[in-house]
Amino acid sequence: MTVRFVTGNEGKAREARDYLSGIEPVEQIEYDYTEIQSDSLEEIAAHGAREAFDELGGEEPVLVDDAGLFVEALGGFPGPYSAYVEDTVGVERLWRLASEEENRRAHFRTVLAYADEDGTETFEGSVAGTLVAPRGEGGFGYDPIFEYNGQTLAELSTEEKNAISHRGRALAAFTEWYADRDA
Ligand code: ITT
Ligand code: NA
């Protein structure tokens, strides 16, 4: 069954397609579901997935991905507001803000919500790293300033990023659940 990955973010869709190749075909759909105001990525993703599943006809399953970058020294900012901050402040200026701090630790977190006629399930993944001056041409969003094990996520291929990233870990939890459910 085709899984509809509901996102306007081509980078997220590329990673999901790559990870799920050989499991299920992934179709990217740009449906503008309501992003509720919440500190909880779970609530935002689950609400969005439910709404998208119903509004898109209630037949094919959907996946929604709500993610954020959490900077330790900034009290977890931008967190659930990461998309807004990327659009307004930008990645480069967020790095400059973080570079004034001694503690450069940060983590990415994503929650994937899957919705079908049986209900909604959420799966999470996170990865801890260090903020650095931008490097690398790959990935998307905050990847150039997020270093893991000596490389920024923008210096990794899609497959390499999936092997260690927040999204890869959430996709792993999802596929494990999905396989058990079919069995
Ligand atoms: P959709 O809501 O349409 O899926 P979005 O880009 O608005 O796309 P989010 O609301 O989840 O996604 O916002 C997450 C923000 O964090 C956004 O600025 C992304 O570019 C960024 N982001 C998410 N995953 C990332 C990753 O793996 N690497 C770098 N930046 C990421
Ligand atoms: Na969004």
Automatic annotation (TrEMBL):
EC number, UniProt record: 3.6.1.66
Matches recorded under InterPro entries: dITP/XTP_pyrophosphatase (IPR020922), ITPase-like_fam (IPR029001), RdgB/HAM1 (IPR002637)
Catalytic residues (positions): D66 (proton acceptor)
BP-aspect Gene Ontology terms: nucleotide metabolic process; purine nucleoside triphosphate catabolic process
Record keywords, A-Z: Hydrolase, Magnesium, Metal-binding, Nucleotide metabolism, Nucleotide-binding
Cofactor note: Binds 1 Mg(2+) ion per subunit.
GO molecular function (one): XTP diphosphatase activity
Binding site residues for substrate: T7, G8, N9, E10, G11, K12, A67, F140, G141, Y142, D143, K161, H166, R167
Domain of life, per lineage: Archaea
Gene Ontology CC annotations of this record: cytoplasm
Residue numbers binding Mg(2+): E35, D66
NCBIfam families: PRK14821.1, RdgB/HAM1 family non-canonical purine NTP pyrophosphatase
Oligomeric form and interacting partners: Homodimer.
Protein name stated in the entry: dITP/XTP pyrophosphatase
Organism, as annotated: Natrinema pellirubrum (strain DSM 15624 / CIP 106293 / JCM 10476 / NCIMB 786 / 157)
